[in-house]
Amino acid sequence: MPAIIIQKSRLILVYIFIAIAFLLITLRMFQIVILGNKDEINKIYNLNKSSRRGDIYDRNGVLVATDLKTKSLYVSSILVRDPKEIASGLASLFSDLSYSDILKKINNGKNSKKWVLIRRNLTPSQVEKVQKLQMAGLLFEDDLIRIYPQKEISSHYVGYVDLDRKGLAGIEMQYDRNLLDNKNLYLAMDVRVQDILHDELNKGMEEFRAKGSAGLVIDINNGEILGLSSLPSFDANTQNEAINEQRFNIITNGSYELGSIMKIFTNAVAFENKLVKIDDVFSVQEPIKYGKFTIKDDHFVKNEMTVAEIFAYSSNIGTVKIAEKIGINLQKEFLEKMGFLKKVDADFPGLGRPIYPKIWREINLFTISYGHGIAITPLHLAMATVAMTNGGIYYKPSFLKLDKQPEGKQLISKETSKIINDLLRKVAQEGTGKFANIDGYEVGGKTGTAERAEYGGYNENQNFTSFVSVFPMSKPRYLVYVAFDRPNYMFNTGGMVCAPVAGRIIKNIAPLLNIKPKITQNPKPAL
Q1: What is the pLDDT of residue 525?
Q2: Contact 202, 195 (CB under 8 A)
Q3: Are 381 and 258 contacting, i.e. CB atoms less than 8 angstroms apart?
Q4: How far is the C-alpha of 286 from the C-alpha of 294, rounded, in Å?
């Protein structure tokens, strides 16, 4: 009997110790969760609060990306009395949250000290509605959301972040570490130029019923990217709703055969090596046959042309005859010097790789001379054209505003650059680019029309058209590049589709860039 009494006493003592321990734990939890300071709460529940991310501005101080303070909704499973009641209440407030999903989250969090995240970045009205539920266990945490005031206009340039505000594309991704350290960035972008570029590409895409469009505006004297746009686009504020087609950046991600626009470099290497003179004459009457291939011109102009005319009227036959003087080795060497055989050296993510022949044969010499058989990104093309027109200096593309003049690399002589500029001006005055010749702005440029390479061949009904232009040609300052992917228009050429859009862009941005039109005696009407 005494042994039984002693055993019962021990059990009672154990129960008392358990009750006291449970009471102490409950009191401690109440003190921390309800009365404790924020630092202790964060420490116990291991909330990974992100620090403020740096702001991004355009070159003139216009805000293009910043953080906004918000609140996120959590549930503390420890404080929840009725999980079903909370799940029902929250599901009634948020149409995108289901009762079953909320209940599952709460039940899964029962054995964890962490708060269960229900919804991030609530609006003030949503916070107010949750508070009116007056249910134990609902807690708010201060949070930050990344917002983009320019919306879809600059999404491919600036990029975007994920829910944890980690950079996933564009400048946000390239300079993620700097921004996480709360360092502000100033872009080379001019929002005014970017807006015009985006708007005109949108109009052109609708006018020519194209599947996509893209454009660049570059300061050719230092390589700053004042504008970059790729369509279709998306609102960076709701990037999670964007589809892959909208996220794809035509300028930096895609590699394309660009057609006759590549004749710029065929002529440049020929002039640089003194293989031709501008007034040399070639017969362009007969198509060139090479095995099963026939190289011909899209339209007949005349039987014989000078080098200048071959360029202005974009003769494939004449260009191939110039390429014959250049030869395989010199062509490949020059394109390598232009940077066309590797990714562009740029501080920007997702850069596309060029595609070119592993074995460079004579047929490759011919087709590459007029822009087929090698695929590069539009950024490749634009930066190399910058060097062709600014006196021969190649600059690395800069997406950030420069505080000093960068060092460039001399690729061609000033004399060759001057010849190329004269040729480009002739294209806009009387050749395939005449629809970009905005009176007073001395526009020069080169058109390109290429059938899209698909499934090991070419689709004759699907073109990638482009036009690269520089102005003013008497003292070149800016490059404007325009491209349309698969336009569905009566005349699907770079001259008919891209040149007029480039002209409108130049007309609208020139006053913003402090370029005044030269008054002519007999001014022609604008487009």
Answers
A1: 41
A2: no
A3: yes
A4: 10
What integer pLDDT is reported at residue 141 of this predicted model?
Answer: 76
Residue 325 and residue 398: Cα distance in Å, rounded? 36
- CA 318/CA 259 separation, integer angstroms: 15
Give the chain's domains with CATH numbers: 56-150 (3.90.1310.10), 193-513 (3.40.710.10)
56-57 and 185-186 strand pairing? parallel
Per-position b or e across 112-143, b if 16+ CB within 10 A of its CB:
eeebbbbbbbbeeebeebbeeeebebbbebeb
Other beta carbons less than 10 A from residue 176's beta carbon = 18
Amino acid present at 422: D
Q: First CA to last CA across the chain, in angstroms?
A: 113
- Cα 222 → chain centroid: 20
Q: What is the Cα–Cα distance from 102 to 273, expressed in whole angstroms?
A: 72
pTM for this one?
0.82
Q: Per-block average pLDDT, block size 10, for the chain (527 residues)?
A: 56 69 66 49 43 93 92 76 76 76 72 72 78 77 86 95 89 96 96 97 95 97 98 92 93 94 97 95 91 85 92 93 96 96 96 95 95 96 98 97 95 97 95 92 94 72 92 96 92 91 97 87 46
- Using only C-alpha atoms, what is the Rg of the chain? 32
Q: 416: burial class by Cβ within 10 Å (0-12, 13-18, 19+)?
A: buried
Per-residue pLDDT, 37: 47
Contact 239, 146 (CB under 8 A): no
Asked, as a colleague might, if the bond just before 2 is cis with ω within 30 of 0, I would say: no
Take residue 334 and report the two structure tokens written for it. 């020059």
Q: Which residues pair with 57 in a beta bridge?
A: 63, 186
Counted residue by residue, the chain has a size of 527
- From CA 343, how far away is CA 341, in angstroms rounded? 7
Mapping DSSP onto H, E and C, the string for 224-267 reads EEEEEEEECCCCHHHHHHCCHHHHCCCCCCCCECCHHHHHHHHH
8 Å CB contact between 448 and 467 = yes
Cα–Cα distance for residue pair 444/326, rounded to 1 Å: 25
